[in-house]
Amino acid sequence: MEPKKNTDAKNISKVQEKRRQSPTEEVLVKGILNGDRTALARAITLIESTQIEHLEKANFLVEQCLVKKSDSIRIGITGVPGVGKSTFIEAFGKYLTSKGKKVAVLAIDPTSTQSKGSILGDKTRMNELVKDPNAFIRPSPSSESLGGVARKTRETMILCEAAGYDVILIETVGVGQSETAVHSMVDFFLLLKLAGAGDELQGIKRGIIEMADALVINKADGANRKEANRAQTEFKRALHLYPPKSNGWMPKVLTCSALEKTGISEIWDMILEYMALAKKTDYFDSARKQQNKSWLLQTIDERLKQRFYANPENKKRLEELLNDVMANKISPFQAAEKLLKAYKKEKS
Ligand code: GDP
After folding, report:
1. Domains of the chain, start order
2. Would you say the CB of residue 263 lies under 6 angstroms from ligand 1?
3. What does the pLDDT look like over 167-202, one tens digit per residue?
4. In sequence order, what are the beta bridge partners of 76?
């Protein structure tokens, strides 16, 4: 009899353990609103889940968190690998927490799908910030679609804001398409650059400069300082050739040393100046509305796809039609039409 008792006890403790591991959505929301980082982290994991059965819970969390009014500033930070993004975020984040701010760092890494490992996911890159009780660092996992990454980052951002984080830093590598997605969800977009190398050499894609509200030349220290100052003058001149932004803001060019922590407070002051202007001109509100619009459209896009591909009938038909297309029996357009028609009929 003894062993059976043991097994029962084990099973009960397993169930208890599982319960402990997965608190209800209501408990998570309460935890988030109380600024509990563990609850926040768990809620984000739920949001990032691709399992259909988690969707409802995730929606509930976002809905509840959206109710909480937040006065946050959302800042996108981009730049090629090696420019010093994590060193900068560490310095900038520490500066902000020293000023009483609560800082959340969300890192998007679209390359991780291919590399199978997140280059941004290494939390140890921000040694100090990771230990700071007023900072929360969270890398976004890889996702099949860029829209998916963006949507989850947005929702993660909402949760962080509900947890009381008032500065949200979204880090992205400036070599993919992720910066367009990030640009569509932040209030201020900052491009980190190096002095002395052309944009092509730095791998900076065209169009990013136009999106930036500020260019910050990093590593302005030691022997590099002179070069950084020269680059600053050149960029300032070059930016004058671009048409002014619709909100009247003229993008600024600053220098800093993330390593020596110089030029950091100037960057924050500039962002505050921008925010003051954007709020005065109502640009802030209309930009946030625009952000909501693209959030809505992306969400619909993703949900439709998710539902379509999760449907077992569709999977089967797609398989068959793929074979037919490969065998040249039907054109891709006809196949797509057939599939969608069958799905529509099924739905109605
Ligand atoms: P990321 O790939 O953009 O995140 O860049 P990292 O923050 O990992 O920095 C890449 C390298 O540049 C590291 O060796 C840093 O120590 C160095 N680095 C970052 N910021 C500075 C800086 O302001 N000055 C100098 N001299 N080196 C820096």
Report:
1. 4-63 (no CATH), 68-282 (3.40.50.300), 296-347 (no CATH)
2. no
3. 999 998 765 667 778 888 899 999 999 987 665 555
4. 170, 189
- Cα(153) to centroid(ligand 1), Å: 25
> Which region, left, alpha or beta, applies to residue 255 given φ > 0 means left and ψ of -120 to 50 means alpha?
beta
Residue whose C-alpha is closest to residue 181's, from 203, 150, 207, 142: 150
Maximum alpha-carbon separation in the chain: 85
- In short, whether 255's Cβ falls inside 6 Å of ligand 1 is no
Q: In angstroms, rounded to a whole number, what is the distance separating the alpha carbons of residues 127 and 3?
A: 48
Nearest CA to 136 out of 101, 110, 111 is that of: 101
DSSP 70-101: ---EEEEEEE-TTS-HHHHHHHHHHHHHHTT-
Ligand 1 centroid from CA 289, angstroms = 35
pTM > 0.90: yes or no:
no
Mutation probe of ligand 1 site: the residue of 86, 87, 227 with most atoms within 8 A of C-beta: 87
